[in-house]
Design brief:
The structure is a single chain. Helix content is 75%, strand content 0%. The chain has 9 helices and no strands. The protein is elongated and about 60 Å long.
Length: 187
C-alpha cells in the first residue's frame, strides 16, 4: 500500500468519524484542515482578516450542517485535502457575492483637469468588465482575478488551480480576448 493510498484511507476514516458525530474527530478535523481553508479564503475573498475569519467559519459550519450532508459526498477516491480545497473554493465563489470577492476599483483621482465624460467612460468600462467576468467560466474568472487582482505569476496560478503553466497561459489569453470583445460590445 502506497503513502497516497494510506493517506486517503486515513482521511476517509477521519471523515467517517466526524460524520458519526465523534467530537474528538471533529476537533482533529478542524485542527488538521483549518490552515487549508484559511488559505483558500485568503486567495478568493478580498476582505479584512475579521471577515475572512467569518468566511472560514461559514465554510466549516456548512461542512457540518444537516448531519454533515456536504461531508458525506466525499468518497475517498482522492486525497481529502484536494476535495476540501475544491469544496472551499466553490463555496467562496458560490456563497459570497461577486462584489464581495472582488477588489474594488479605486476611485479616480480628483483633479480639475479630468472631465466628467472621462470618469463616466472609465466607470462604464469597469462595469462592462465586471459583467463580462461574471460570464466567464468559474475557472477562467479565477485565473483572470488571480493574475490581475492578486498579481500572481503563471506558475503560482497553475499551482492554485491545479493546471499546467501552459494551460493557464492559454486560458488567460482566451479569457482576455473574450473580455475585450465583451467590453467593446457593451460600449
Amino acid at each position: 500500500m502506497g503513502c497516497d493510498e494510506r493517506a486517503r484511507e486515513d482521511d476517509y476514516r477521519l471523515v467517517q468519524k466526524v460524520i458519526a458525530g465523534d467530537p474528538a474527530a471533529r476537533d482533529q478535523f478542524v485542527d488538521l484542515y483549518s490552515n487549508l481553508v484559511r488559505k483558500v479564503v485568503s486567495q478568493y475573498v478580498a476582505w479584512s482578516a475579521e471577515e475572512q475569519q467569518d468566511a472560514w467559519q461559514v465554510i466549516f459550519l456548512s461542512l457540518f450542517e444537516d448531519d454533515c450532508r456536504r461531508l458525506r459526498t466525499y468518497r475517498g477516491r482522492a486525497r481529502f485535502s484536494t476535495w476540501l480545497f475544491t469544496c472551499a473554493r466553490r463555496m467562496c465563489l458560490d456563497y459570497f457575492p461577486a462584489e464581495q470577492r472582488l477588489i474594488p476599483m479605486p476611485a479616480p483621482p480628483a483633479t480639475n483637469e479630468r472631465k466628467a465624460d472621462d470618469v463616466i467612460d472609465r466607470l462604464l468600462k469597469h462595469l462592462a468588465l465586471q459583467e463580462a467576468l461574471e460570464n466567464l467560466s468559474p475557472t477562467d474568472a479565477i485565473i483572470v482575478r488571480l493574475r490581475y487582482e492578486r498579481n500572481l505569476s503563471y506558475q503560482r496560478i497553475a499551482e492554485i488551480v491545479h493546471m499546467s503553466v501552459n494551460t493557464v497561459a492559454s486560458r488567460l489569453r482566451r479569457a482576455k480576448e473574450r473580455l475585450a470583445k465583451a467590453v467593446e460590445d457593451a460600449l
